[in-house]
Amino acid sequence: MLSDADVQFVDRRYGKNAVRLLYVRREGIRHYIKEVEVNTKVTLNDTRDFLRGDNSKIVATDSQKNTVYILAKQLGIQTIEKFAIDLSEHFLKQYSHVTNTDISITEQPWKRIQTGGREHAHAFVETADGVRYCRVEQQRYGQPKVTQGIRALKIMKTTQSAFNNFVNDEFRSLPDSTDRIFCTIVNATWDFHTLSGLNFDNAWETVKSSILDVFAGPPDTGVFSPSVQKTLYDSQKLILSKVPQMDKIEIKFPNVHAYEFDLSKFKSFGFTENKQVGFR
Ligand SMILES: O=c1[nH]c(=O)c2[nH]c(=O)[nH]c2[nH]1
C-alpha cells in the first residue's frame, strides 16, 4: 500500500456534468431562448476530502447544479461565454477555499421559425448547422481564460475539390483524384489573449462564416481545394486576420468519405468503367 506521501495529485477538479437548462426571456410578444448544458468544476485548496474523508470543504455537486439555475434566473444568459464567466466568478467569490474553476457550456442550435417570410415571435426550430460551446477556466486572482468552439457543422461540396500528387509508395492504394466530393464535420476551438473589445456572438459568427466562405467560395463557381490541409489553413488565416483578440485556433476537418459505387459489373444497364472508384 502506498503512503499519502507517495501520491501526487495531478488533477483534483470535481463538479456537476450535464446540467440542462432552458432559459426563456420574454420581451412583450417576442421571446428569446437558450437551451444549454453546463458542466461545472472547482478545485479546493486542500486535499482533506480525498485523504481523510473530511467533507467540510466540499461544495456539493448538487449545490453546484442549483447555482446554475439560480444564477441563470438572477443574471440571465446573454451569451454562454458571459454566463460561464458569471458562474466562475461566483464560485471564486462565494467560496474562499476554491482555487480554480472550470466551466464549460454547450448551446443547442435553436433558430426562429420563419413563417410567411417573417421570423416567428416565439416558435423555434433546432437546426443542424453547428453547435456552439465554450469553456472558462479561472484561477483565484486571475482573469478568466475563455475558449470558444463550434462542433457538428457538417458541410459538403460536390466538385472543386481534388487530392493528388501525394506520396506514392508501396503503402498507397488511393488513386489521384481531380474532382471528388469533399465532406466533413467541422470541429473548431479557439482562445483569446484578451477579452477587451470582444463580442462573443460576433467572434463565433465570424469563425463560422469564414469557414463556410473559404470552403464554398462564390455561389456559382465555388473555389478550388487542392486538399483538406490547404482549405483548413486558408480558413484559419482568414479567421485570425478578422478577430484580433484571438490567440490561436484549432480546426479539425475529418474526411467523411463518399464512395463511388462501382456499377461497371452491370453492363446490361449500359454502365461502363467508373472514372474513379473507392475512397477519395
Ligand atoms: O485532402 C486530403 N488530405 C489528406 O491528407 C488525405 N488523405 C487521404 O486519404 N485523403 C486525403 N485528402
List the helices and strands and how they pair.
Blueprint: E1 19-27, E2 30-44, H1 48-52, H2 61-75, H3 80-94, E3 98-107, E4 110-115, E5 118-126, E6 129-139, E7 145-157, E8 182-192, H4 200-216, H5 228-242, E9 246-252
Helix pairs in contact: 4-5
Residues 163, 174, 227-229, 255 line the site of uric acid (URC).
Features:
280 residues, binds uric acid, 24% helix, seven-stranded antiparallel β-sheet, disordered C terminus, alpha+beta
Q: Given the structure, what is the number of helices?
A: 5
Termini Cα gap? 54 Å
The helix-strand sequence is EEHHHEEEEEEHHE
Oligomer: single chain
Shape: globular
Low-confidence parts lasting 5 or more residues at pLDDT below 50? 276-280
Q: How would a crystallographer describe the biggest sheet?
A: 7 strands, antiparallel
Radius of gyration: 25 Å
Structural class comes to alpha+beta
Side by side, the strands of the main sheet go 1-2-3-6-7-8-9
Mean pLDDT reading:
95
Task: Bin the strand percentage.
Answer: 25-35%
Function: Catalyzes the oxidation of uric acid to 5-hydroxyisourate, which is further processed to form (S)-allantoin.
Pathway: Purine metabolism; urate degradation; (S)-allantoin from urate: step 1/3
GO biological process, one term: urate catabolic process
Enzyme class: oxidoreductase
